[in-house]
Write a structure and sequence with these properties.
Layout (H helix, E strand, L loop, with lengths): L7 E5 L2 H11 L3 E5 L3 E5 L2 E7 L14 E4 L3 H10 L8 E3 L2 E7 L5 E7 L1
Parallel strand pairs: 1-4, 5-8
Antiparallel strand pairs: 2-3, 3-4, 6-7, 7-8
Length: about 110
């Protein structure tokens, strides 16, 4: 049996709001939308999946969606100007890490390599 990568996804409570956030705030390209919304993020399929089950929001697992940035300070400033709360960057082995949350509280990491 051969396994192939399909996508990564987050559950959301409001599909319209999630589509607006990921396309307008983060600039992801919306590829398709039916019962879920699919975005192409540098060749990786990212989906937002609506749910009425609040226990599925803000997943408690170890997985995170992480975006590479070239200039952490600029990325943080840009997001804050768009009204998105972002943590201050922290130095980690190999680079800088900051995070933000989508409207449902799903964590999104920002990573700048050293």
């Amino acid at each position: 049996m051969r396994f192939q990568f399909d996508c990564t996804f987050y559950y959301v409570s409001n599909l319209d709001r999630a589509v607006a956030f990921y396309s307008e705030v983060l600039g992801f390209k919306l590829k398709s939308r039916d019962v879920v919304a699919r975005f192409d993020v540098d060749g990786v399929m990212f989906e937002v999946v609506p749910t009425h089950d609040r226990s599925l929001l803000q997943g408690t697992g170890n997985g995170r969606f992480c975006l590479r940035v070239e200039d952490m300070s600029r990325a943080i400033t840009d997001l804050k100007q768009r009204g998105v709360p972002v943590t201050e960057s922290r130095s980690k082995p190999g680079g800088l890490l900051a995070s933000l949350r989508d409207p449902d509280g799903n964590e999104i990491g920002l990573w700048q390599y050293e």
